[in-house]
Automatic annotation (TrEMBL):
It holds the Pfam family HTH_8. Member of the two-component regulatory system NtrB/NtrC, which controls expression of the nitrogen-regulated (ntr) genes in response to nitrogen limitation. Phosphorylated NtrC binds directly to DNA and stimulates the formation of open promoter-sigma54-RNA polymerase complexes. Gene3D superfamilies: 1.10.8.60, 3.40.50.2300, Homeodomain-like (1.10.10.60), P-loop containing nucleotide triphosphate hydrolases (3.40.50.300). The lineage of its organism: Bacteria, Pseudomonadati, Pseudomonadota, Alphaproteobacteria, Sphingomonadales. PANTHER family: DNA-BINDING TRANSCRIPTIONAL REGULATOR NTRC, TRANSCRIPTIONAL REGULATORY PROTEIN. Keywords: Activator, ATP-binding, Cytoplasm, DNA-binding, Nitrogen fixation, Nucleotide-binding, Phosphoprotein, Repressor, Transcription, Transcription regulation, Two-component regulatory system. It comes from the Bacteria. InterPro entries: AAA+_ATPase, AAA_lid_NorR, CheY-like_superfamily, Homeodomain-like_sf, HTH_Fis, P-loop_NTPase, Sig_transdc_resp-reg_receiver, Sigma_54_int. Its main location: cytoplasm. Residues 8-125 form the Response regulatory domain. This is DNA-binding transcriptional regulator NtrC. It comes from Qipengyuania profundimaris. Coiled coil: none annotated.
Amino acid sequence: MASETTRLLMLIDDEPAQSRLVTALAAREGWRTLVVGSSDEALEALGTEEGADVRAVLLDQWVPGDAACELIRDIRAARPDVPLLMLTASTSPLLAVEAMRAGATDYLIKPVGPDRLMAALRSATRDEAPRDELQPMTEKLPAELDFDAMVGTAAPFRTALAKAATAARGHGNVLVEGDSGTGKEMLMRAMHAASTRAKAVMKLVGCGSMPATSLESLVFGHEKGAFAGAFDRQTGLLEHCDGGTLILDDIDRMDLPQQDRLADVLESGIVRPTGAAHGFKIDVRVFASSDVPLEELAASGAFSQRLYDALGTTRIHLPALRERMGDIPALTRHFLAKIGQQPGFTHHSIADSGLTLLEAYDWPGNVRQLQSVLYRACVHEQREALTAHSFPQLAELLGDNPDRGESRARGLGVLLYEEDGNLRPLEEIEADIIRLAIGHYRGRMTEVARRLGIGRSTLYRKLSELGIDNAA
């Protein structure tokens, strides 16, 4: 059988150039690729001794032979436990949705970058990774680039948004920290869109998605002949973003020498490409993110103290979803509305039994994982409302009576009764209605007051009286 270091990927594709690219990318992480050019070849190969070693299948949408969805069903019947990913050239999710309904695990939009391909393969084949509905999606829903799209009323979250909105109007560099999946990239994009540089160039690069040498050339640039293989001059993103914003995702994964080099640029305002005799004066604003607190890494010497000082003037921490469980109903409504607007989907609501499961789970993958779970549920659910049956893996994990804790009073409606059958105090019901309104109207307090039929000053007085935190 294939060893862990020689995992076998079956690629069903008749394009030689793309096959060579995927084979080379997969080889970087110990994958050996078996390339087949048609559905018949694929099914025949799966039945061989070598085919028994296949750990994942990557299917190009345009493979000749049977329709892609029919082939997916056939592969799923032959190898039900093998992750199956589809490559599609269409930016519309319609074909991908059809493929997932046929049994595909995930999909990628061409041209596929090395970081997305590797992330998809890692997610699909990691033994300890959550499977089925809890597995993260590789592609993301189109992001709205403004603060109104950042849904939630929990105090730590609203505080982070308020701080980000203030920082966006400034001119300094910004560091955004928080667990993976909390929305750091979306927040940084929203900050650029709200800044005075909104109409200038903005580029984003994932520091952990490429080799150190490639990242160095991408960020700083190089001159022709600077090193073996440097056949042409490459303009770095720091120079390219002059007057605009450079977003560096996962900056903690940048090598230490590059961190110090970036600190030099931020301190001096001058970038010198590798191999260049002189530098260029630039005006670039840097937004950086990290999944881990950089202060601790800098103190231990694992991160450049100079770069931390240059970035950490404004630090924003995005709380994990488990720290803002009361936001789950509002986030759920928001994501269901967005998903329902995508081709191939219908608009879904969520029943209380489904929401109970969502509120009881601790969401290690945070908001991104919640969105993926809802997306997968909408792919497969034919009924209008998502129920507990729409989330079979969550139901299996949490059992028949999941504990929603304090968040159960923040569902799609407002609970009127205590557990003993008596009415809840009017003050508690009123507080829940205000929280529900704030979440529904995404913290727009003028709109909340108008819809509740009270003045804005009255609303803020009630927030104080009822002890409702609001950082909007």
